[in-house]
């Protein structure tokens, strides 16, 4: 339904309004306005693009869809691409498709839901009868009496925006929106108080009561009216008309530019202009809303708010800095991340476990201070010391579990407590913030530090995987894969296969390509039971190092197993698993090409000297656990690694653990019985069920992980025959004894970091003991292990793993 009512759909300049005076026998308002009349009975429906436009079409009144099935009854700039909203009726109560606004027969303007018969909003005309409504070219929507006296104006009930010709009298207020995308009421208010002061307040969000002012015109007793005049100047005037305070004066003309002043969600009142056309007078102005930076109030929101309530211009634990556009930017200090990256005003959280107060003196060693110049949280003091040195200040904060940040400036030391509020970065500040962070960040979610792109690649030949259950589905996929593979041989030299998962592309190499890549298999990286591994570089990128694994003859015969492994590993994608880049299956040659991990394997770092510190070892523990959890439960085909040991855990430059070498794993075909399977795995890490007639499940990896975990805790091999004390020869055995006797400390006796983190050491030992239970069903899944390590799940007291020792002896 088209709603604009064309009773007098032509422009009525003021000069000719006398004519209408005669026709209507009523005086017109003395403004340079033109009219289109909306008479009782007319309505608009949310869903269509219907609106009531001003005569020039520059403004429209109607519904704007702001979210899925959420409409605002609003007034907006109608001739520019972005339909900038300047007023709305229901910012905290969006209406739905089908809801209506209607000028009722009795003269009330009502926003309502027909189905529920519910009224959502109405223009308050104090019961007087409205003769017509009109959207004016000024952006004012009015309800007028028969004698054209305005009973209600949108200009008198502003939302967050003022327009030229609009005045702002005592008691009026603007309330900021919640965010740039969400127009519901937010955290700031701009008001002309009855005492004559023009004031910006923070609000006690989500309530609308005010906290403290953060800007004031200081015109108490004098301020009377804020005027946004036709020339685009904004100023406060006294009752006698004298200008008291100029708010904005350097604006371009209103004939060439649209103007608006808005209290934005960040608490700043800004005057924006937008060129009306691309050509005249608009040279140099891009077609968008540009703020007049000289007129921002307050000029620096970051430093303006100083109140004990609330968080400041940005959320708790964050800090505010002015960007080059003079707009505030909220950031998290080092060691902290946003609670909600989509709503940075919600503040930041610590990314680490905070200091334990019970053992404050002990945990001191586990924290360090990160320095940040010119940053302060001036209102979060817990203590203040003067005439001290920076060194003293640092020590004082580190040894105080309540101290989250220390500020040091000119011999003064302020300790700050959580939550930090009113954070700001201000180049004129001159001090420095010392932010306390846990040394090794063990927050599980924080493992995604930027990866070093320089990781090289290894080509490994001839690994075999154990796939515990081969579903029919998988066989079909395998079949399809083999077909592609065979088809590929004769046709092209380079074949990019898409095995099964979209997004995973393995490269098929020719043998001569790999000969070239490895300079004729010159540099050997290692050899195992079934294969030899060589270092190589790929032709397309000399810096991409790869490990090329050449399968031994014996294994080469296992055509199907080879292909199954290629397929299964090729589909894995996890930061804690080595990446398979490609393969070669040409004649009798079977080779696999892997990413080369530079730093070597865990065995070198664990049993060598100097050994890895406790924090790196914990990080590696998490990495291996997550990688195994992925293999067991998260990748499309369940994979049992079968040979978890330190030699097969590679480390990259940042000591991230990367599980490699699926070399002795085996594909278990449906018809394959265990009789054909020799014991796989490495002495000391092999689960007891290999020696018994029990099915091999993912729990064999859990067992090996348990042994690895003990080795990681203690930095020694599980089996050390040269140890004098016989009770300590087998670590698994000794560890349980220590745990049973409450002497876990003996296991990490010379490791200072670990000794200081004893609670965690005990927990890890308990988890390890659970993992090495002889009965596979007692061992936790890798998922549970991960949750226990991370502290999400409690660790109960483990039973004696009992006869595991016998199985090791029988090996
Ligand atoms: C409303 O207008 C917009 C832009 O002019 C257009 O894309 C949309 O299809 C219209 N919707 C309806 C329901 O007419
Ligand atoms: C806008 O923000 C308010 C306050 O957080 C919230 O209650 C409301 O759901 C948000 N509205 C939309 C449309 O996101
Ligand atoms: C107008 O009012 C202001 C403040 O109330 C006062 O300072 C000023 O002198 C007055 N001007 C005139 C012309 O009365
Ligand atoms: C608007 O205000 C400025 C500053 O007081 C003044 O110079 C200008 O003439 C005013 N414009 C109109 C149209 O009143
Ligand atoms: C990769 O390593 C080279 C040499 O070691 C270095 O120059 C380059 O910046 C590194 N690239 C990346 C992305 O780390």
Can you walk me through this structure?
The chain has 811 residues and is of the alpha+beta class. It has 16 helices and 44 strands. The strands form eleven sheets. Strands 36-37-41-42-40-39-38 form a seven-stranded mixed sheet, sandwiched between helices. A five-stranded antiparallel sheet has the order 29-35-32-33-31, covered by helices on one side. A four-stranded antiparallel sheet has the order 1-10-11-12, with no helix packed on it. Helix 11 (699-714) packs antiparallel against helix 14. The chain binds 2-acetamido-2-deoxy-beta-D-glucopyranose (5 copies). One 2-acetamido-2-deoxy-beta-D-glucopyranose is lined by residues 229-231, 233, 235, 243.
Walk me through the topology.
Layout lengths: L16 H8 L12 E2 L4 E3 L5 E3 L5 E9 L2 E8 L7 E4 L11 E4 L5 E5 L4 E5 L9 E4 L5 E4 L5 E4 L7 E2 L4 E3 L3 E5 L7 E8 L5 E6 L6 E7 L6 E6 L5 E5 L4 E6 L8 E7 L5 E7 L14 E2 L9 H4 L14 E4 L5 E4 L4 E3 L9 E3 L9 H4 L3 E7 L1 E2 L4 E5 L4 H9 L6 E5 L2 E5 L6 E3 L6 E7 L33 H20 L3 E3 L8 E3 L2 H7 L6 E4 L3 E8 L2 E11 L1 H4 L2 H12 L9 E7 L2 E7 L6 H5 L7 H21 L14 E3 L5 E3 L39 H16 L16 H10 L11 H5 L1 H14 L10 H9 L13 H6 L2
Parallel strand pairs: 25-34, 37-41
Antiparallel strand pairs: 1-10, 2-7, 3-4, 4-5, 5-6, 7-8, 8-9, 10-11, 11-12, 13-22, 14-19, 15-16, 16-17, 17-18, 19-20, 20-21, 22-23, 23-24, 25-26, 27-28, 29-35, 30-34, 31-33, 32-33, 32-35, 36-37, 38-39, 39-40, 40-42, 41-42, 43-44
Helix pairs in contact: 10-11, 10-15, 11-14, 12-14
The structure holds 2-acetamido-2-deoxy-beta-D-glucopyranose (NAG) (5 copies).
